[in-house]
Every structure is written in C-alpha cells, then in structure tokens.
Design brief:
The chain is mainly alpha-helical and 243 residues long. The protein has 2 domains: 122 residues, no CATH class; 96 residues, no CATH class.
C-alpha cells in the first residue's frame, strides 16, 4: 500500500502547521508550484496527466546494489547518516536518516540509470537537497563498475591504483549483488573479486566485506577456495568456524 498526501504551505493553509520531524521523515517530499499557463491550457483544452517516465520492475539485485552504494557513501560521510533537523524552518521537510537513506536506495533502484532528473527529485525529497546533491555527486564521480562485470573478471579493475573508499564501494556492490541474487552460485562467485583485491594490496578493505558476505551465506553453501586468502582475518575475528 502506498500513501500519498498533498498540502498547501503552512503559511497558506487554514490553521496550517509544519510536519513534525519524525512524521516528515516518513514521506518523499516533492515541491510543486502550479503554472499560470498550465492552468489556462487545462481550462481551455482539458487537463491531462503528464507522460509517465520509465520505471524498472522491482529487482532484488538492483535494490541490493543501490543499497550497497548508499552504504559506501555513508562510510565516507558518516555524519550524514542521521542529521536530525535543528532549524524550525526545515524540520517539516526531508532530512537524512537511516529510514530515508534506505528509501532513497530503494527508489533509485527503480529508475533508469541515466534518469538523473528523477534521481535528483527523489533523493532531495527523501534526504534533503544538501545530502542528496552530495550523494549523487559522489555516485557520479565514483563511476562504479557494474558488479556483474567485476565478478566476471575481477582483474579488469585496477585495484592497486584505487583509493580504499572506492575499492570498498566496488566490493560492497559485488557483495550486494550476490546477496540480492540469493543463490549459492552467486554467493560463491562474490569471493573472487575480494580475493583479487586482497592480492592487489587491498586486503584490509576486502576483509571488511568478508563479514557481510559470511552473514549472507545461503544454507549449505560451501565457501570456494578463495576464502583461504582471509583465513587469518577470519580466525582473528572468531569467524573461522562460519567458513
């Protein structure tokens, strides 16, 4: 079930008031100012619905990749995970929280990759303009490869030349894709890029993704031989029995 609400600005509504921050945090906010020409055209030629944009079918893999991307960004900017509004003028609008970042990832996973206008509208309406612009800029500049391509050939990634935050983002996408797919085969294949990244000098970053991959281990899935690259890390973390 989806809930849609509409309201005038508080200053133009009878007994109007701003939404409380907890309530505002449960909505995607879209500002709309009707145009005079649009109203005149509608009155004379009839009102019609705007053309619909392209929306992808819900996909566990796309959603998992989108969530991994948001998680990678928050790893770089943890202060934006929860930024409760302190300004009364913005308290009833969109603001960043665990809830709205999750909603942002899920909505973005339904949009075409090149639909930047809709992505901007959705992200601003969920986490606020400042956080949205920062995230979308980070996502564009990171230029993360398709996790499917990384899994197919991890050696195509120049692991040694990448900074740790970008390596983490790429590997988080790989783990997100494999766990979203939910099959034993996909889970086993995700170990390949982690092992290659570790061999290329990014062992600390790769090891940070190992725990997540183990948590998402499908029932009766046997770890592939690549897990041997992380035996020391798993042992120190007390996770060796899980592998």
């Amino acid at each position: 079930m989806q809930v849609v609400a509409a309201a005038n600005p508080p200053e133009r509504a009878a007994d109007g008031w701003d939404l409380s921050p907890p309530l505002a945090n449960r909505f995607l906010h879209i500002g709309y100012t009707p145009s005079t020409d649009g109203w005149i055209d509608g009155m004379t030629a009839g009102f019609s619905l705007p053309a619909a944009g392209w929306v992808a079918q819900p996909s566990r893999e796309r959603r998992a990749i989108a969530r991994a991307g948001v998680a990678a960004f928050i790893r770089c900017r943890p202060a934006l995970l929860d930024a409760f509004p302190t300004n009364p003028a913005t308290s009833g609008r969109a603001w960043p929280s665990r809830r709205t970042w999750t909603m942002t990832a899920d909505v973005l996973s339904l949009l075409a990759d090149n639909d930047t206008e809709s992505a901007h509208l959705a992200a601003c309406g969920l986490v606020g303009e400042g956080a949205a612009v920062e995230y979308l800029t980070w996502r564009r500049e990171a230029d993360l490869p398709d996790p499917v391509a990384v899994i197919a050939d991890p050696t195509n990634v120049a692991w040694r030349r990448l900074d740790p935050s970008r390596v983490w983002a790429i590997l988080a996408g790989v783990v997100g894709y494999s766990t979203g797919k939910g099959t034993v085969e996909a889970w086993r294949e995700a170990w390949g890029p982690l092992a290659i990244a570790a061999e290329q000098g990014k062992g600390d970053v790769a090891a940070a993704c190992v725990r997540t991959l183990l948590i998402a281990r499908p029932p009766n899935a046997r770890p592939p031989h690549e897990v041997r690259a992380f035996i020391g890390v798993l042992s120190d973390a007390g996770l060796l029995s899980a592998a």
